[in-house]
Amino acid sequence: MTRLNALNPEVATGKTKELFNGIQSKLGMVPNMMRTMGNSSAVLEGYLNLSGALGKGSLGSKLGELIALTVAEANQCNYCLSAHSFIGEKLVRIDADSLEQAREGKNRDTKIQAALAFAQVLVAKRGQVSDEDIEAVKAAGYTEGEVGEIVAHVALNVFTNYFNNTADTVIDFPVVEAVATI
Question: Is the full-model pTM beyond 0.90?
Answer without folding.
Answer: yes
